[in-house]
Amino acid sequence: MSAQMNVPFLISRAGAVSALTLAALGGSLLVPGGTSEAQAATAHAGKALKIAASKKGAPYKYGAVGPSRFDCSGLTLYSYKKAGKKLPRTAQQQYNSTRKVSASSRQVGDLVFFHSGKRVYHVGIYAGKGKIWHSPKTGSWVKLDKIWSKSVWYGRVR
Does the reported pTM lie above 0.90? Predict the structure, then answer.
């Protein structure tokens, strides 16, 4: 059994343990009701993804930010705003404001940025299994699609 797995036993047997002892054993100090920065980011991302998915079928409209019509960055802006996070307006600005992550580290809810050279021209929300929720173009609507290009970058909303 690892030291970290023994920590709950030590706390329950002794009734309390110092933060230094806990750290020495490889444990972590949790505050009831508290969440880590990573947990909070994951919660916002999951909520934003659900909001984007709930807009399935909403028509694309250039410059639209919802609640019934969206362009690509309007959908991500709207979804994250409803999830409690602020994003800038355009896909390029959103890319500039996120924490960059590798394809192997991407998580559900991360933003997927399509680029040509250094210019970002499209954004969607990663849904897992190589798919995104996005509002693609005039004549289309919010939908779930496979990522169709290798020219993508990933960003995590802070």
Answer: no
